[in-house]
Design brief:
Strand 2 and strand 3 form a beta hairpin. This protein has 180 residues and is α+β, with helices and mostly antiparallel strands. It contains 6 helices and 6 strands, in the order E-H-H-H-H-H-H-E-E-E-E-E. Helix 2 crosses helix 6. Helix content is 43%, strand content 18%. The strands form 2 sheets. Strands 4-3-2-5 form a 4-stranded antiparallel beta sheet, with no helix packed on it. A two-stranded antiparallel ribbon has the order 1-6.
Length: 180
């Protein structure tokens, strides 16, 4: 996960130092929440689900790649938390975590978890570059228009690609893992 820094920088009524401080606080809350999620789902209780999700994610004939491991695991955790359904409860892991552990979180972590729970899987393309730090995107299926931070792709190929990932309604946070 990463903070959408441009959104924090655009907060009005605050100076740049305060906005940067606020960004740091939110960034720490996201990191803390992700560590809790990782630790929680690495428990023995979820070993069968973890193995099953990995099998479903990569298929029967594939292995975890040696090259690009970081990107692979970002994609897997995105799938596991948002899309996979736990065997015992048929609930997505993020929803299950919220039901069982949500009340134990701090205010910022709880707010971020609620944002994550409100995300929606979206297939989209980039219509235009709005600024050096943001792009206008179009949902391929609904024609909904939304803004995202400029993605880390070759500038010239941005408008030729389809992307998919979990998009958050308020634009505060987004998954680092978007695919094209």
């Amino acid at each position: 996960f990463r903070l959408v820094e441009d959104d924090v920088d655009q907060l009005t009524g605050f100076d740049a130092d305060f906005n940067q401080h606020l960004g740091g606080i939110i960034g720490e809350a996201i990191e803390g929440l992700m560590l809790k999620l990782g630790k929680y789902f690495h428990k023995e209780d979820f070993a069968e689900d973890f193995e099953r999700a990995l099998y479903l994610y990569i298929g029967p004939f594939e292995r975890v790649p040696e090259e690009g491991k970081d990107e692979f695991w970002l994609g897997f955790w995105d799938y596991f938390l948002f899309d996979y359904h736990l065997v015992e409860s048929d609930v997505k892991p993020l929803e299950y975590f919220n039901m069982v552990y949500g009340e134990k979180l701090g205010i910022e972590e709880s707010r971020i978890l609620k944002e994550l729970l409100n995300s929606k899987f979206t297939v989209f393309y980039i219509k235009k570059i709005l600024s050096p730090s943001s792009v206008e995107c179009i949902n391929l299926f609904t024609d909904e228009v939304f803004t995202l931070p400029l993605l880390d792709f070759d500038y010239k190929s941005l408008k030729k690609l389809l992307f998919f990932g979990h998009i958050f309604p308020t634009g505060l946070v987004m998954i680092n893992y978007l695919s094209s």
